[in-house]
Design brief:
The complex is a heterodimer of chains A (509) and B (325). Chain A has 509 residues and is mainly alpha-helical. Chain A has helices at 3-12, 14-32, 41-62, 64-74, 77-95, 127-131, 133-137, 181-219, 223-231, 239-260, 275-311, 313-328, 331-348, 356-390, 394-401, 406-443, 454-462, 473-500; strands spanning 35-38, 99-103, 120-126, 155-158, 164-167. Chain A contains 18 helices and five strands. Chain A has a three-stranded antiparallel β-sheet with strand order 1-2-3. In chain A, strands 4-5 form a two-stranded antiparallel ribbon. In chain A, helix 11 packs antiparallel against helix 16 (406-443), helix 12 (313-328) packs across helix 14 and helix 15 packs across helix 16. The termini of chain B are close together. In chain B, 36% of the residues are buried. With 325 residues, chain B is mainly alpha-helical. Classes of the chains: A mainly alpha (509), B mainly alpha (325). Chains A and B meet through helix 12, helix 13, helix 16, helix 17 and helix 18 of A and helix 1, helix 2, helix 7, helix 8 and helix 14 of B.
Chain lengths: 509, 325
């Protein structure tokens, strides 16, 4: 894309403007507040990924032949619902990727010396942490069931008269506002649910009216007519499904606001952390592994695959040798071997890392790189095969006959014609990688134990299955959060494949 | 045929050398034996003597690649690379950190691993192909649609949850079989039945979907239309024509996994306490026993290469057009 075109793109596409605006606003806010922005390695890559995606879709929007398959994806109600679920996850993940360190209050002794430099807390926070402030800070002593007002285990509690009694102690935060839990607990929960529902409905109606108004203005259709068509599900894009999904998410958000702060909506874990907060924090970890792995491996897979197919001869032999060798090592073992080495390196070089979060982040990045190394071979082989097929086609033979250079042939003729394979592979890989994180954390070669991830949640909760009665909420929370993401990703990937794969079109799907 | 097998075996040698160099680099160059000793013995309060002793016990006190002090062949042979990496080629795995012979342990643990992996593989394969054929039979109907949705949902569940769910439901609530453990001989069945069921159920989602795609791709081909046109029943078309012709893509995906069954399944064995090679590997990773991990990496790549060879050979069984030369 030339410079002039790029400028044009900015003018034509409000999405890009909004992104630039958000970045500037964030930088300004950071500079104004007494915080020190921290850009972790994975944060930087996430920003890069988002920029790439925005540019990609800006480009796609401007080309009709590229828009057509995406429109086909959007017209499927199920794919659209999946897209919204994914967007919500991505939003949470992005909010959790803007990190900073708060300034510590200046020590008393340095009052006269105003030039002392400010010290910053070693605790790295994200915007999401700030939004979840109370939920994050309300740490109990140990396990408590969802919405409980008491701990899950009995403990010695000192009574008012000085004697001790073995009982279930009240929670420090969960249900603190209740004077007599026995009589008020259930009505309070009911009231809060009703509140949440009412607020959600009001908010949802507001969104609905604004959205439909915008649409009716854009398509020059009457508001009432459009609304009736949407409710009947007769629109081209499945707006009805969109609004229903949005409604569910608005309700869930309201439920968190109403119940999550006063109680522990999904209970607490062994050290008393809120399970809901942990599950939501895990979203970033899952997304990072699912997306950055692909981002890292993609250039290698594409370049090597096309080169092997295009040049053949010894280049092909060398590339085939590399991927057969890598492929022949069982994936988990290669990851384990590499992660053990990285672990050893990190523990021998502690001084490089200022905070725990930074150390965990480097490990996460390495995990992505290693997962990338083990997973690029499949795509590479596919691209090699496709390129071998393409290079025999007439138009490429013609290009060769006209004396076009190899670079030109690859970039202008081959690359655009294998892009659909790349795209399908990327979306199909995502869900597998999210699932792999859980298994790797179980094996002990996943993300850092200090980092919130579904794998770590499952791993620590698994031992509690032997408990009587069972501590089930951590597992169930991890299960649902993960299931929803992977299911949405799978459904979306299916829709993308159906729209882009020329072979599937003839089938039933 | 024999010449072909021989040549393919020769091809395997550079690959195994590559694997060997890669693991050597990961385990001895990225981190020196010194670092390893430090981690095993604890980061602080470790004397240089203790490190030297730890290295000597395991033979890590030698030079990495070239021994300047030794004479003749000794300068190449008396090194870590030769002792720890080259010896793998003759399946001399050395001993683990606790002094046990790795090759002996692998032979011992192969039986429980296979007792679990083979039933899962066979039952899973049969079940998945059957379900996929049924779905293909009802293609473009409501049954097909539901089948796809259900298999997408099944494959969206982490393998860990199949195991945890199975243990919770069958062992803890219904008390049908023990939660975990293992015994030799026939009494192993009561320990194996749940892991096998869990393994099969966990694979249905992705398996069925994969086979369905293969079958649907075949179903749209001309020879199927011809078969229908000459009046064959749909059942015969599916089982006799489509299934046979779908064998090539099926074998490509399936045969390569057969030798890898030896490696056992990592998480299932570890959750159910089955003393196979999978739990052996996991325990080694957790205890950071690099000798075992190296041995398993080598074994895994050998098995994978055998799998590739078997795949090529299996083509001759199902497709008379394939000639190996």
């Amino acid at each position: 894309m030339s410079h002039a075109q790029e400028k044009n793109a900015v003018k034509r596409h409000p999405g890009l403007m909004v992104l630039i605006g958000v970045v500037f606003a964030a930088v300004a806010a950071m500079l104004a507040a007494p915080v020190k922005p921290v850009i972790l390695w994975t944060d930087a890559l996430i920003y890069l990924l988002i920029t790439t995606l925005v540019l990609f879709f800006t480009y796609v929007r401007s080309k009709e032949h590229l828009r057509a398959p995406w429109r086909q994806v959007m017209q499927r109600p199920l794919a659209m619902v999946a897209l919204i679920v994914l967007s919500v996850y991505v939003l949470v993940g992005v909010l959790d990727s803007i990190h900073f360190r708060k300034a510590l209050p200046a020590p008393k002794t340095s009052v006269q010396n105003t030039l002392t430099e400010t010290h910053y807390s070693v605790e790295v926070l994200s915007v999401l942490d700030v939004l979840f402030g109370p939920i994050r800070e309300q740490v109990e002593k140990s396990y408590s069931a969802p919405l409980a007002v008491q701990l899950f285990t009995k403990d010695m509690v000192e009574q008012a008269d000085g004697s001790t009694l073995r009982m279930y102690p009240r929670l420090e935060y969960g249900g603190r506002h209740l004077d007599d839990p026995a009589s008020q607990h259930q009505t309070d929960i009911m009231q809060r649910i009703v509140h949440a529902a009412v607020q959600a409905i009001v908010l949802w109606l507001l969104i609905l009216v604004l959205w439909v108004a915008t649409l009716s203005w854009k398509y020059k259709t009457g508001f009432g007519l459009l609304l009736r068509q949407i409710l009947a599900g007769k629109t081209l894009l499945p707006w009805r499904s969109v609004f229903i999904t949005l409604g569910v998410f608005v309700f869930l958000a309201m439920l968190i606001v109403e119940l999550g702060v006063a109680y522990h909506l999904l209970g607490t874990d062994k050290v008393g952390n809120d399970v809901l907060y942990l599950s939501i924090k895990s979203i970033r970890t899952g997304l990072v592994i699912g997306t950055l792995t692909t981002l890292i491996m993609l250039p290698f897979a594409v370049l090597l695959g096309i080169m092997a197919g295009h040049f053949r001869g010894w280049i092909d032999d060398a590339i085939q040798y590399i991927y057969t060798t890598l492929n022949s090592i069982p994936g988990v073992l290669l990851i384990a071997a590499a992660i053990l080495s990285v672990d050893l390196y990190i523990s021998n070089n502690q001084e490089f890392f200022e905070t725990v979060v930074e150390r965990a982040d480097v490990r996460l990045l390495f995990l992505c790189i290693i997962l990338g190394i083990t997973s690029w071979t499949g795509l590479c082989r596919l691209l090699r095969g496709e390129t071998l097929k393409l290079r025999e086609l007439d138009y490429i033979q013609a290009a060769t006959a006209f004396g076009a250079s190899n670079t030109k042939i690859i970039s202008r003729h081959i690359l655009p014609n294998v892009m659909h394979i790349v795209l399908i592979a990327v979306v199909l890989d995502f869900s597998g990688l999210v699932l792999a994180e859980a298994v790797l954390s179980y094996v002990g070669v996943g993300v850092d134990p200090s980092m919130a991830s579904w794998g770590n949640m499952i791993n620590s909760a698994r031992l509690e299955m032997a408990r009587e009665p069972v501590v089930w909420w951590s597992l169930l929370a991890a299960f649902w959060f993960m299931f929803l993401l992977v299911l949405a990703a799978n459904i979306f990937a299916d829709a993308v494949r159906d729209a882009f794969d020329p072979r599937v079109g003839r089938g039933i799907a | 045929m024999l010449a072909y097998i021989l040549r393919r075996t020769l091809y395997a040698i550079p690959i195994l050398i590559g694997v060997n160099l890669l693991t050597f680099w990961l385990f001895f160059v990225v981190n020196s034996p010194e670092d390893m000793a430090r981690m095993q013995l604890g980061q602080k309060r470790v004397t240089p003597e203790a490190i030297e002793k730890w290295k000597k016990e395991r033979g890590y006190d030698k030079p990495l690649l070239f021994n300047a002090e030794a004479q003749g062949m000794g300068s190449v042979v008396d090194t870590i690379f030769f002792e720890k990496s080259v010896r793998l080629f003759v399946f001399d795995f050395g001993s683990a950190d606790d002094g046990r012979d790795i090759a002996y342990d692998i032979r011992q643990r192969m039986v429980p691993s296979l007792a679990l992996a083979i039933p899962v593989f066979l039952v899973g394969l049969l079940l998945n192909i059957t379900i996929a054929l049924i779905i293909a039979f009802f293609r473009a109907t409501y049954i097909d649609y539901m089948g796809v949705i259900i298999s997408v949902m099944l494959m969206s569940i982490s393998a860990l949850f199949y195991i945890i769910g199975g243990q919770f439901l069958v062992s803890k609530i219904l008390h049908l079989v023990p939660i975990s453990g293992y015994e030799g001989g026939w009494s192993a069945i009561k320990f194996l039945i749940l892991p096998v069921i869990v393994g099969v159920v966990g694979g249905i989602g992705s398996g069925t979907r994969w086979f369905r795609t293969i079958f649907l791709e075949e179903i749209n081909k001309d020879y199927v239309r011809t078969a229908r046109a000459k009046g064959l029943a749909e059942r015969v078309v599916l089982f006799k024509h489509v299934l046979k012709n779908a064998m090539i893509p099926i074998l490509t995906g399936v045969v390569v996994t057969i030798p890898l069954l030896f490696m056992g399944s990592l998480i299932t064995e570890s959750f159910f306490g089955i003393p196979g090679l999978g739990s052996y590997t996991i325990d080694a990773i957790r205890a950071q026993d690099f000798a075992i991990v190296r041995a398993m990496v080598f074994l895994g790549s050998v098995l994978y290469i055998i799998g590739l060879l078997l795949t090529d050979l299996s083509y001759t069984l199902v497709d008379p057009r394939v000639r190996l030369s």
